[in-house]
Fold each of these.
Amino acid sequence: MLPIVAFCYGLLRNFRRNNRPTEGANNAPAAGTADARPRRTRTKHNRSKEKHIHWDRLFVVLFTFIGLPLLALYWRKIHAFGTEILYPKYEFAPYSLDPVDVYNGKAEGMSMYPYYKFNRVGIDRRSNLSLQEFIDVYDAKWPVILTDVIPKWGAYHWSKEFLMKYYGKDRVTMKAVNGKISNAESLALPIELYFKHSNEGTPTLWTYVEDELFIPMRPQLKRDIGDMGVLEEDFYKLFPEDIRPWNAMLLWGTPYSRSSLHIDPYNWTGTNAVLKGRKRWKLYPPGQDDHLYVKKGQRSGFPLDCFKYNSPIDTFDPDLQEVQKKYPKFKDLRTVEFDQLPGELLIIPTGWFHQAFNVEETLAISSQVMNSQNYWIVLEEIFKAGNLPRTGLPSDFPSMTAENQVKTVMSLLPKTLLKKGKAVTQDMLEQIEHGMKKVVGH
């Protein structure tokens, strides 16, 4: 600041000096006036010999030896301050799914297609579903079953005998239950051992293979999973590989085996493809979370961590009266129930709690999608987990396309998260190799 003041003062001083009157005809008083007497007038030549401070030169010295070093030292802060004023940053405000918007969106979408008789309270089974109709009626709104996608996959022809023949020595992760689902243990056993008992199960004694890495780590199996039809858009492909959610989970359950009651990680759009067997589903529309006794603060343990939303309620517990007594709000829940058959692909929208029950020995693959209809909710889960601050996004973030918004968020993730994500996957593989025996929490 001092060099700037000195410079300005020097300019002003020079301006005043150069504009003082000098001796000459124009400055001489009129004859006969009181001021006509001789007087001493300074000339430019005399002024040039006066002693005075050269403020402009002082400015150059001060700026060179003080201003420049200070400018270099604080340049980042100065630049950031100026940028913040000229281009204010965008803040990603907390967001939650509005159940009213979900229901109104579905109703509006159905009105656009009067030729189809929609199931307004249950599940629709569709074939030849157009992308636009899927977006208007189902995507991020209501579950739907597609019947013409899975039969085109190479994986549709998998069987437990196929897995036994080619991967019998390989280990898979599974949960084993003896009693209540809350007592489940996580194990990693060879397929050949599980194969011998995969058709055995009772309401309180069962096993369920839930392996998130078995298929992704075997490219030949991943290639057998074909396209998802109306779900080809997937922004998870924009994630750095080290933090990309594991895709294509192998699900192989004995009779009576089941998942927990949950919303999928990142609140994504989930898919479930039944290859063999039969699944029974209970899905819960958004807006009923307070009836589900969800435990807060649970983490997914994914490479890019996020919260998980699991309910302690087992809706397929043989003693359902005991469950309702322990969780009294449970009985007031609105539920969508149905069975899923081989060759059917179930799409579960964001915001829907769900639990799957294997009526018989069942082989399936689950996956997930982040697209233009649900990406904002997925980004909210990334911010909510503390992976990066909500502030600091570019000022033009709201005007970007959905794809570019996702790319921007990914570019801002700290490099330490990428390194951590790679370590999480490696640690999981090592646990599988050593048997992975631990209690599964809810």
Note: The two ends are 61 Å apart (CA to CA).
Amino acid sequence: SKATWLIAFYAAWSPACINFAHIFSKLSNEYSNDKLKFGKVDVGRFADLAAEYHINTSSLSRQLPTVILFQEGKEVGRVPAIVQGKVQKFFFKEEDIVHAFDLNNLYAKCRDKKELQAPATKAEDKKTQ
């Protein structure tokens, strides 16, 4: 897919995930468009995906929630980051997520891609007529 995705991996039983849910929802409402999409994965139901992305889902894990940015199907960023096998402390506040993923610039780039592609499509339609 050509869309950029911001995916939150969460567990329904995790207080940190429950507290983060409204923030992720708000960001989704503010920043999503045709080229920038938001999604959630319940690691309790989709443990295979959590394992694929190396997210520890134990009750002692400091990796829940984990938010991963995908561009063209590839992971390009995540919070909390893992450096030399250690989970880095991250505060899941709205402004911290916006800053960590540079959402304002990402949103603008994705919006501009949509606007740039639209006129090309119309020009192509005229050529085929």
Note: The first strand starts at residue 4 and ends at 10.
